[in-house]
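Course assignment 3, question 2. Fill in each field.
Student: A.L.
Task: Predict the tertiary structure for the chain below.
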Amino acid sequence: MFKTKIVITIIICILLFPQVTSASIIHVVKKGESLWGISNAYETSVEKLVNLNGLPYKDVINPGLTLLIPGNQYIVQPGESIWEIAQRHSTSIEKIKSANGLEKNILFPNQKLAIPSSPKKEIFTGAFMVPEGEKANKSLLKQYKKLISTIGFFEYHPDSQANLSEMPGEGTVKTAWKRNLIPYATITNLSSNGFDDELAHQVIGNTDTRRKLINNIYSVLHENDYKGVIIDFEGIKNNDRRNFNLFIKELAKRLHPVGMEVSVSLPPMQGDRYPDYYSGYDYKTLGKTVDSMFLMTYDWHWSGGPAGAIAPLGKVRETIEYAISAVPRSKVILGIPMYAYDWNIDNKEQKGSAYAQEHAIKLALDHGSVIHYNKETHQPWFRYKDKNGDQHEVWFEDARSILAKYRLVKDYNLYGMGGWKMGLSFPQAEQLLREEFKPRQ
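Answer field:
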């Protein structure tokens, strides 16, 4: 009888206070903190924090910098609220209270909290790769082997007569197969003018040229043993909406019978023909034909425009909600930016530059910049002055913002997610991917 009571008590405690915790917690550096002090508080090492977060230095951190810290518990900092901690970890106040047996929202400095985890989800994960030298290619494939399911080799493009360009590094496709990474060829409408809407019109607007392009795509896939194709035609105009639909339909008709797949990269839309400058894209019609759709939910602020959030969480969510209203969610892949943008805000004529998240962090640390977090867009940013005295504004992703996007993939039960691009080092994103997902092989 006594043993029965103990068992019942244990079961009740488990139900009321489930001790399911994440593999890492997210700490935001406060003024006056050091890596040594933080590592000591969390009973880990400076070296582990440096490696896990891709930090350039062991003795320099700035206020606002986020750190992934291994372990089961978060240590409450002075002035922090349970709402703030829940937001940072993309969970809810109620889940934190339940995991810790709390009745009220009141927290105390140095209080230890278990952060509820989210069940690991098996999904498709992919990334684009721009082949370089053979040694560099093999190194990238080895680095990403356990993180992704597929690779989009970037890129081939047609001329006005639908002849496809060559792509250096085609031999890497065989290496990808050997590492159980499924290769796809990416076909773009790039020209010397960038993504070229007129080139797209020339190759898809004429029946014979369109047929020739489809045959040439098939030849590239067959000769190089690609599993399928990713069509990344950007800037399609409204007058080519029907032509683009026909192109994708006819391409699928050519490839599907031989077991090849068709995926399409699409701009972020929040409704049919909305925004109107993306009205050349028809989610619903394309979704009936393709095997998957890669939503490019980024570049709301781009290098040629004013500084701002690259992938605001609210806009990303709106795009997903429209997409799954038009297309089965089992076909939807969420595109995630793995880069930062740096704008010279004192020189409006100078375009912004893109680089890896790790470089953004190094710049912030080198200039002693405080890192801010925009609670409306859920993205971090900072400012610094260059050697000429011009002020720059940098927007990027960190552990907080990337975790929020990962959770959208789970919340909406999407087919998967993909990133632009391999080689842009982002250790926090890689670690969180390991914790949140199991790549589908």
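Instructor remarks: The radius of gyration is 24 Å. The domain at 2-114 is CATH 3.10.350.10 (Membrane-bound Lytic Murein Transglycosylase D; Chain A).
Grade: pending
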